[in-house]
From TrEMBL:
Keywords: Decarboxylase, Flavoprotein, FMN, Isoprene biosynthesis, Lyase, Manganese. This is Anhydromevalonate phosphate decarboxylase. One of its GO terms (biological process) is isoprenoid biosynthetic process. Catalyzes the conversion of trans-anhydromevalonate 5-phosphate (tAHMP) into isopentenyl phosphate. Involved in the archaeal mevalonate (MVA) pathway, which provides fundamental precursors for isoprenoid biosynthesis, such as isopentenyl diphosphate (IPP) and dimethylallyl diphosphate (DMAPP).
Length: 429
């Protein structure tokens, strides 16, 4: 993470004044669109760090990429060709070993008045598959219960299957202060037999891992690593403001019990503002890469974007080089299959920029007919859509592409600009 901080240091804001981790620190993150280090956290000595990836440009810069599309292609390639990460011999987080009592010195934020308790929101949970030994690394919110225990939101995917196979008593390591490049790659949706750490190693070549207790490999750049178990105990978790900025419901979730804590002598604790732009980028960016990979199997993709208005989660715009009729619908359905939380997909031609809402609306206004180009699929689900009934909803593909044989009819006509006019315009104050 410290290397990432150096990559964004020109934009970094350092707040030295004491602020409370309850609402005040989150309020600064909400109001600023730059990375922030909070050196004065009321009641604590450990500084907080937030908004590290509140702009896609920061990941582009840290990866040495040319553009956001370059980042997505790189992640899609890493998902297709993962590689085992290299080993680290002496990670910095081994500088000190503490017990669960260390958590009393550790600042945790309440972000919203509706929060069920103080939360960790940038926690990478790593576990090893009990039978096949596959490491799983995924980001989970964790609500602090006190006495070294957290209620962990575990969705029914890979980590939950590990937990079930271990008879609800699973050793895990919770990593804090992980480099955002690693975190981003570990948010990718990969098959059960693929480790997210292998994807991260292919995505970002500087990743190293170190095996802590129970043979769990963790990112060597971590600032803090908590080792313990996901126990059979369940506790209420939530409410919590999710990526759509609406309340996720309260559930009984597995309890993580901390056994020991490894930490740097001077650790940073990173936080992600729930529902903020960093939250959306870290969740939505890997989903864009997944959609890109899947849609590329049925069409030539120019660009994929999960839109800000859809929380970078529920709505997508996909631009393609359309060759045949029906191709746009296939592209839209492939996008829905790739990212199950998608609700609406708008498919546009290559001359429409998905990053420009006005261009997308223009395509819908001039190239779309509802009785012909709207394709609705019913009975699908997403738990993050507050309008869904029991998690079930309808999804739609909007074919906003021009007919292949009549493309010239839809071309936008512009006034020609001569070199002389261009020169005059350039010389204007």
């Amino acid at each position: 993470m410290r290397d990432f901080l150096r990559c964004v240091e020109d934009d970094l804001v350092v707040v030295k004044e004491e602020l409370s981790p309850e609402y005040e620190v989150p309020a600064v993150l909400q109001e600023l669109d730059r990375p922030v280090v909070f050196e004065g956290v009321e009641g604590y000595d450990i500084p907080l760090v937030g908004n590290l990836c509140c702009s896609r440009e920061y990941l582009v810069r840290a990866l040495g990429a040319e553009s956001w599309d370059d980042v997505l292609r790189k992640l899609a390639e890493a998902m297709d060709s993962p590689k085992e990460p290299r080993k680290e011999r002496s990670p910095s987080f081994l500088e000190a070993e503490r017990g669960p009592e260390f958590l009393k010195e550790f600042p945790m934020c309440r972000f919203y008045r509706t929060d069920g308790g103080p939360y960790l929101t940038a926690s990478l949970v790593v576990a090893v598959e009990p039978e096949e030994g596959i490491p799983n690394a995924s980001v989970h919110r964790m609500m602090y219960l006190g006495d070294g225990k957290f209620a962990v939101r575990v969705v029914p995917r890979h980590l939950y299957r590990y937990y079930e196979k271990a008879d609800h008593d699973l050793p895990v390591a919770v990593c804090l202060g992980v480099d955002p490049r690693t975190m981003f790659a570990c948010c990718a949706r990969v098959p059960y037999e693929v480790s997210e750490l292998d994807v991260a190693a292919a995505f970002w070549e500087d990743l190293r891992v170190y095996e802590v207790d129970y043979g769990i490999p963790v990112p060597a750049e971590s600032e803090i690593v908590m080792v313990g178990r996901l126990t059979p105990e369940r506790a209420p978790e939530g409410p919590f403001v999710d990526v759509t900025r609406t309340l996720d419901e309260r559930r009984r979730e597995p309890v993580f019990e901390v056994e020991k804590v490894y930490t740097r002598e001077d650790p940073y604790h990173p936080i992600i503002l729930p529902g903020g732009e960093e939250h959306r980028i870290m969740m939505g960016g890997p989903a864009e890469a997944t959609v890109l990979a899947h849609v590329s199997r049925v069409s030539e993709v120019v660009k994929v974007r999960l839109t800000p208005g859809g929380g970078r989660w529920l709505h997508a715009v996909v631009s393609i080089r359309k060759r045949t009729e029906g191709e746009a619908v296939n592209a839209g359905l492939a996008a829905l299959a790739a990212h199950p939380s998608l609700k609406h997909v708008v498919v546009v031609d290559e001359d429409v920029d998905p990053d420009d809402p006005e261009q997308v609306e223009y395509a819908l206004a001039t190239r779309f007919q509802a009785d012909r180009d709207l394709h609705v699929v019913r009975g699908l689900g997403s738990t993050l859509d507050p309008s869904a009934e029991e998690g079930i909803m309808a999804k739609a593909v909007f074919d906003a592409t021009a007919p292949v044989e009549k493309r010239e009819r839809f071309e936008v006509v512009e006034v020609p600009v001569s070199d002389r006019v261009r020169r005059i315009l350039d010389e204007l104050p």
